[in-house]
Design a protein that fits this description.
Layout (H helix, E strand, L loop, with lengths): L4 H5 L1 H11 L5 H11 L5 H14 L6 H4 L4 H11 L6 H18 L1 E3 L2 E5 L3 H11 L7 H6 L3 E6 L7 E6 L2 E6 L8 H21 L1
Antiparallel strand pairs: 1-2, 2-3, 3-4, 4-5
Helix pairs in contact: 2-4, 4-6
Length: 203
Amino acid sequence: MAIPKTISYYRDIEAENIVTILKYVTVKALTNYIIKNNCKDYFYSDYIDYIDGCQMLQMRLRKSTLFPKDFKRSHDNVTKNVKVVKNQRTVDAIITTYQKYHSYYNHELSGYKFLLVSCFEDLLKESDKLNHCVRGYGKHIESGRSMIVFIRLRLDEPLYTLELRKNQITQIRGSGNKDAPGEIYNIAKQYLHLLDKNLKKAV
């Protein structure tokens, strides 16, 4: 089985995702499912979001749930049905994170604006506009697991959403939860080099 490019680029991050997934399924079952369904490079992140959503909806994690025939459709249905509760600790954590780090994370590169999420409502708007599940990522910002950065050509027009974990790219999603094209990943890698320099200066 060929290793998806996401793992070869960001092996440590994807290894964490796989370890989390293996709490629910076996290696053999997961491998067979990936091969049978020709899963994309970003499958692991989506699968964790899907399982989280299933648990929030109190669905039984039976075989048909863990291995749906149409993963994208099942993922999207779960995402649409999950209602994110506005938790004050999460709201405060997002604001605090923005105030502390936005000067390091906010940049313009190759015509694209990289903007650290500034408030809980921004996550909801981004998710509604692009039809993906970033609205549920407030808990990841609160825990320090993830940083969410919006990629835009215009300030008021959502385009791509970037998740960073340990300042490595976990995923970049556009409208309909589609993976961003290679051009955007290449620009995001340049952004990471700039971000790394800024953070090192701050130490």
